[in-house]
TrEMBL record, chain A:
It comes from the Bacteria. Residues 351-432 form the WCX domain. InterPro entries: CBASS_pafABC_assoc_protein, WCX_dom, WYL_dom. Signal peptide: none annotated. Residues 234-318 form the WYL domain. PROSITE patterns: WYL. This is WYL domain-containing protein.
Amino acid sequence: MAKESFDKEIQFLRMLSLTSGAYNRKQYAERLGISVHTFDKTQRRLKEIMQTVADQRSGSEQNKEMADLVRFQYGESAEPMLLFLFRAKSMKETEVQRLSVLLHTLQDQALTAMELLDACCADLPEDLALPDEKTIRSDLKYLEEVGVIRKEPGGRPYRYLLQQDVLTGLSVEEQLELYDFVDIMANTQVPSVQGYLLRDSLKKAIATSYPQEEATEPFIYKYHYYSRILDEAHLYTLLSAIRQRKHVQFLYYSPKKPSSYSSQNTNPRFEREAGGRSNRIVPLEVVYDHQYGRWYVIGFQGRRGFVKFRMEGITQLEEQDSIEEEYMLKLKQQWAEISRYSWLVDTGNTVTVQARFFHPQDGQRNFILDRVRLQGQWGTITPETDHTFLYEIQVNGITEIKPWLRSFGSSCEVIAPQRLRQEMIKEWKEIAQYYESVREDVQLPDDDEIE
Amino acid sequence: MNLFEKMFNYQMMTRLNETGLFTWTSQERAWLRMMLNHPAAPEALHPNTLHKMHDMLDAEQDLDLQDYLTEKAKSEENSVFHPLLKPLRQMILHHQGFRLTGRVRNGRISQDQFGYPYKLEYSMVKKEWYVLWYAPLHNKLMSTKLHSIITTEAQPLQPETASQYAAKIAILTENRKTTVTIEVLPEFNQELSRILYAFSCFEKQVEFVEAQQTYRIELTIPRNEMDYVLSKMRFLGKRVRIADNAALRERMSETAAKVLARYAETELETLPERTSGGVRSHPIEKPFANADGSDSA
């Protein structure tokens, strides 16, 4: 598999979707570490794929810029445009032809390899070289491996049939019900790529019974992190390495300079790292961060101890030799212990954070309490006065919880630790300065009524 | 499990679509099997459908991701499904209107309102389902939490009426959109990736002013989502500032003032009373009965 090409495309798409419009092609190429020529070529290729996929949906995307094509359009549909990364694998035209003829032939009946060979010979366009038995057998093997077809019970010669129980076994209403379920789960749970792929196929399958657009786009989701599906490209390699206890090696490009989130005292060298560095680790766990929509891999790396890498920076990922079960188990237990109180992945010293939250004005629903309940992880809530409550949580380090506490504005007052309290005051002073010049009497535009 | 399988290739897909051929791989089945174990499955699927699905997928591989994959900072998820989704979804599918009775703010009940539902929206932040609908009587777009609905009943509509409503909805949706420009302070450019991830859930356009090495992020949002943007701004703190919107700048400024007053007040309270009867007699700035916290994030 041309792994490098996907690595490049992932980085390419991520950059386009996150920074859409910020750079010209020369700047993009520079930042991606590729030539302008390669940039143009990649862009052409992705655009072509995009249009092939998108044309079936709308037919009017011809003149859009690449950046517009990958831009997140909220409100219109739950269609994950970045999904096409996973559709981009290069294939020979002959193979595409052959595999699709095989599948089409199997659509209505179970057939043997020899019968399929005949069908192929009859159905393939004349200008293509005819396949031999060996090729057909290996195609069937592939299709069986990915689970698209299966052998009928019984002896040789085997008859193959298409796996399509979900269409044949479910009524039209049930198919729609399943489509809705898949749509909801793919959009609200991780991982989601397989769900999106399935959603795509089901969408086409139900279109014959429900041609109207409302059949397939009734749901929208706000505000979810759309680019997270790009990192799922590495997810299964890493999960399988963890499951099979294998070392992995990869080249890591730190997303600019690692922020204080990625790693702290356990890994001081990593903080100074510039990027593009080769790493070999014992992978232990993959962490998905709902706060930013980012993925991390946690590993152990000899002298450096436990290390954390953001998945967005990983390229050229390779599985390597295996690790002893006992050793791996020990590392996993250690990591579980160390990260027990990590708000995300911080493994700094455990501190007790205490904050006072203020209820909203009288008569309003207590959305502050609701939000603390919803997002406060393992922290505890104690009622204090008629208009306040206390929130207490043990966390590793204060860096990761700080943004969350800050997002409550004046509805939250940090009480302990003193250092966090002081930092909070300092930051709010700085923020106040940014807006010092604002003193005009302004009003927010009238909102549309909600609820 | 390789997500770059040939089977997912776009050319394959195009070719298979020509005849409406349905294929599903064992990967997709394994994923679905995992999702069927989620508590939402029995709520979302009819027992018969669920039973059939379990039967079909029984032989599939078990993904067991929970042993290797941890989700952090996740909002507690009460339910990703709501029983009203099904009937409302049917109304949307068949272009029907509805009559709705529900709880509104302050415990009031709104009786029997007529509306035209057009989307079901899930908030990843609040973990709640909403129905978006058009109220022809007031020519307004509405959004109602499914949890606040007491009853809802489908109302047949003439196709012309439904398409008139759809046109109105498109216009109103466009009209309520607004933009906010946010500037990344250049000294935090090295954290750009994180900042952009945080804003990746919005429709946006980024501009890079090379001379000043400044990134400006222009968000396009419905006007009633301003509070959520503000909460994101507070989340990111001093790394970013609102560049263009006077009203929002004022709100941020106000928040900062209130927070600082809040801290100043408790600092004062904890001071030992050195001046007899003095501390309390100073006019302490009256702190904001109106907590700025907004229903967001």
